[in-house]
Amino acid sequence: MVIEIAHFRLAPGKAAAFFEAMVTAAQFLRTAEGYRGHVVGRGVEAPDTASLIVAWRSHADHVDGFEPSEGHDRFLAALEGLYEGEIGVAHIEAGDAAPACIAAGSSE
């Protein structure tokens, strides 16, 4: 299992709208091949940021399957104008089990 960690810098005054839009955007994650769950939240030390953590079956499911897909385009379109700059993305190898916060159920 691979965990994707995506960092967003929220547009000023758009935090509530970002999290509302994430509910819609997440439907495109859920239908992706290899999707295992996700959690999203606002930065504690930096409340102008948000992080999306997604569990994928494999790195390829994310970068070769989801990223070039229409679902990914629709995911980004749902969040358009609600964050600034580039989305910072990193992947970590998680072995066979998703973290409990993801395995217990996805949240927006």
UniProtKB/TrEMBL annotation:
Q: State any single GO MF term.
A: monooxygenase activity
Q: What is this protein called?
A: Heme-degrading monooxygenase HmoA
Which keywords describe this protein according to UniProt?
Answer: Monooxygenase, Oxidoreductase
Q: Where is the ABM domain?
A: 1-76
User: Which residue spans adopt a coiled-coil conformation according to this UniProt entry?
Assistant: none
Which top-level group of life is the source organism from? Bacteria
Q: Which organism is it from?
A: Albimonas pacifica
